Amino acid sequence: MPDDLLEAWRTNHRINLYLIEHITDEGLRCTLSRHGGRDVALQFAHIHNNRVWHLEKRAPDLADDLSVFPPKISPGRTSLTGAMTASSDAMETFLSGVLADEPRRRGFRKGVFTTLAYIVAHESHHRGSILLTLKQCGHQPPKEVRYAIWAWDQM
Questions:
Q1: Around 96, how many Cα atoms within 13 Å sit in the side-chain half-sphere?
Q2: Does residue 92 carry a pLDDT above 70?
């Protein structure tokens, strides 16, 4: 079962990278905000920053080498991919440690599965927001990309 939990995390991460890869450069800059809210790139940056925040609270040593994106500066695709891969690897180490009951690895009180579910739900919420932003701004990814993010067995 631990391998299944970690594979679920890896799949979630691959879906994020797949989506980043299939969004145009113009799409990464799209926003529905009229008041300086997050564009698509900043929504992905928020996902990464949220991972770092959880690690700082739940496994501080794993956050030491991770940096966060500033709130108003949209990162590029390469920066996003690199940062998200680094934070995903740290999250996987964290989840493995929670599963093994290692010291300094504190998941949610309801357990590691709740911890994973919460973080994946948060990231999925933002993927939905990203797709809505892209659709409303006229930069919707192709249908096969939009459907592929739901094909967890193939991802």
A1: 11
A2: yes
